[in-house]
Design goal:
The chain is of the alpha+beta class. Helix content is 36%, strand content 25%. The strands form five sheets. It has a six-stranded mixed β-sheet, sandwiched between helices. A four-stranded antiparallel β-sheet has the order 4-5-19-18, with no helix packed on it. A hairpin with a 2-residue loop joins strand 4 (112-114) and strand 5 (117-119). Helix 1 (8-19) packs across helix 11 and helix 7 crosses helix 8. The longest helix is centred in the C-terminal third of the chain and has 29 residues, at 278-306. The two termini are 24 Å apart.
């Protein structure tokens, strides 16, 4: 991030805030209270939160919010957890972390600490984010820091995989919060070296092809759902994509059939389309559907030629299983100016990145949002060998707090 992009007014305000005695005291508390933050992180990670099964962790987090003095603590109908630190402004700054993991409910959550490192499934993604929002709430409670806009702390569900950002979608679809949140600061995983300000869009489908089935010998020539999907995959693989905006497609899962000598009655595949442009994603979806139409027609043609009235044919359906909208934070947005100024104040080097996070939802709506890490370092995400190193967490927490305070104090 280069200094010429920063607003002098915002930079001066951030510097002033960083020098306020109460803020400096809060910065010190981040170092002294690390043991508590690590304990919260391990406790949260030991509570199962598989996709669509986040309720136990939501209840655990709601209890922590109450203990930390947040008001209006509630769990909404989809499982998101809210807690408010009041102020006199009319709109809110949200600081959120997704509470779901990729791991099924049966996963053994063997979370442990060795020195400065924590180990266990989900301990970094997103145990680090959960610990960060609790750390911010804790330090604010013990400080005398004043802020103009109220803060809403959110533990949201449904960020991972087929959760399809359902928690954050619900936040911005509700009357209570949809228009009330001015800025969204999303904490996802470890680190302090990135700012996700560009939302990578994706659309995912399950394609199911069904046919009459039969024996590979006696029914040879019957339309085969796997052959139809194979034809469609071949056609899709030849679809041109631009280098800019970067656009990709993938067939990642194929299922179907019962034995090597059976013509399957059904087969399915899962398709992932991604781009920084929603127009390109729309184009790829059209290409997929055209490929399927042509592939099924070609597979059915011999049977229809033999007996057009009584032919048993392959048919297909396309089921959308994921839709993450693209978006981008404007270069002149206040939030981007603030995070640049905060990084400059803290001597932190960070790069703007594009990724698929909870920030996709507000960014796609034209709202100001970023996703950043909770400090420290981590690795092995989405594996049983996941880890988080607490060294460096203090920088990440200072970065989050100073960003929130600057957003609250500047120009609203």
């Amino acid at each position: 991030m280069s200094a010429p992009d920063m607003s002098p007014t915002v930079q001066q305000e951030v510097a002033r805030l960083a020098g306020v005695p109460e803020v400096r005291a809060a910065f010190s508390r981040f170092r002294f209270e690390e043991a508590q933050f690590a304990q919260w992180q391990m406790e949260a990670s030991r509570v199962p939160a598989p996709p669509f099964g986040e309720t136990p962790r939501a209840e655990w987090l709601a209890d922590r919010f109450r203990e930390l003095g947040l008001t209006n603590v509630e769990i909404d109908e989809v499982g998101n957890v809210f807690g408010v630190r009041p102020a006199y402004g009319q709109r809110y700054i949200s600081v959120s972390a997704h509470i779901d993991t990729v791991f099924p409910a049966s996963t053994q959550l063997n979370v442990r600490q060795q020195g400065s490192r924590l180990y266990g499934p989900g301990v970094s993604d997103n145990g680090a984010g959960i610990a960060a929002i609790l750390a911010i709430a804790s330090v604010l409670r013990s400080s005398q820091i004043a802020h103009a806009l109220p803060f809403v702390f959110i533990g949201n569900v449904g960020e991972e995989g087929e959760g399809d950002l359902r928690g954050m979608r619900h936040v911005f679809q509700t009357a209570d919060w949809g228009d009330a949140i001015a800025y969204s600061v999303i904490i996802d995983g470890a680190g302090s070296d990135t700012v996700v300000a560009e939302a990578l869009g994706s659309r995912r489908f399950e394609v199911i092809a069904r046919g009459p089935g039969g024996h590979s010998w006696s029914d040879f020539g019957a339309p085969n759902p796997i052959f139809a999907l194979a034809r469609a995959i071949q056609s899709l693989s030849e679809t041109p994509v631009p280098a800019s905006p970067k656009t990709t497609f993938n067939v990642g899962v194929i299922r179907g059939g019962t034995s090597v000598n059976s013509i399957p009655e059904s087969a399915s595949m899962r398709v992932d389309l991604r781009s920084t442009s929603m127009a390109e994603i729309d184009r790829l979806e059209r290409a997929l559907r055209i490929a399927l139409d042509h592939a099924v027609d070609a597979e059915n043609q011999p049977a229809l030629a033999r007996n057009p009235r009584r032919a048993q044919i392959v048919q297909y359906e396309v089921v959308e299983i994921g839709n993450r909208p693209a978006g981008e934070l404007a270069a002149d947005s206040r939030l981007l100016k603030v995070i640049r100024a905060v990084d400059a104040q803290l001597g932190n080097t960070a790069q703007i990145q594009r990724a698929s996070t909870d920030a996709n939802i507000p960014l796609s709506l034209g709202r100001e949002a970023i996703a950043i890490g909770g400090g420290g370092t981590g690795g092995g995400a989405h594996t049983l060998q996941e880890w988080f190193d607490c060294n460096g967490r203090e920088l990440g927490l200072r970065r989050i707090l100073l960003t929130m305070l600057a957003l609250s104090a500047v120009g609203e």
